[in-house]
Amino acid sequence: MTLGPARRTASIIAVALLALAGCHGSQSVRSAQGQCTGSAQDHREVVLAFYRLALIERRPREAFEQYAAPGMIEHKPDVPAGTRGAVISYLEELMAELPQARWEVLRVAAEGDIVFLHARFVPQPGAAPYAIVDVFRLEDCRIVEHWDVVAPPPKTQSNPNPRF
């Protein structure tokens, strides 16, 4: 698949919806062991495990099958149909085009059934980072909805405070 500049930028941003490097939190996920209570902490662990498997280990299909509900709703406008299957296919293609992309989760907050992530996404070594905020909603310890807010690298930085 060959992408033009505008589509490639949109693709990079879409990949960032799953951004994670150096997950914070537990290595085990209680939901995978049948012990998830649906607490905010359990939801946090589910989302972080999902990120790790999807991008760090580069196995998005397995991550979606394990951690996302079959009827998951994707709100990113660049993902055709907004379904779990559509986002899996889209990410598999994008990952093939961005083999050196790196992600880092900087902050995680969970409240009830919502998990928020603030992440840094670098599409290739030496590239300027994108700032990403991902929002996930969970039911029964499975991801059922996803939204994101993406900020490309600034052209100029008047504010002395960095995004990260």
Total helical segments: 4
| Quaternary assembly | single chain
Q: What portion of the residues fall into strands of 2 or more residues?
A: 25-35%
Please count the beta strands (DSSP E, at least 2 residues each): 5
CATH top-level class: Alpha Beta
Low-confidence stretches: 9-28
Radius of gyration: 15 Å
Helix coverage percent: 25-40%
Please summarize what this structure is.
The chain has helices at residues 5-16, 40-56, 60-67, 84-97, and strands at residues 68-74, 102-111, 114-122, 130-139, 142-151. With 164 residues, the protein is α+β, with helices and mostly antiparallel strands. A hairpin with a 2-residue loop joins strand 4 and strand 5 (142-151).
Written overview of the protein:
- The protein has helices at residues 5-16, 40-56, 60-67, 84-97, and strands at residues 68-74, 102-111, 114-122, 130-139, 142-151.
- It has four helices and five strands.
- Mean pLDDT is 83; it is low at 9-28.
- The N and C termini lie far apart (32 Å).
- It has a single domain (9-151), classed as Nuclear Transport Factor 2, Chain: A (Roll), CATH 3.10.450.50.
- The chain is an alpha+beta fold and 164 residues long.
SSE order and pairing:
Layout (H helix, E strand, L loop, with lengths): L4 H12 L23 H17 L3 H8 E7 L9 H14 L4 E10 L2 E9 L7 E10 L2 E10 L13
Helix pairs in contact: 2-3
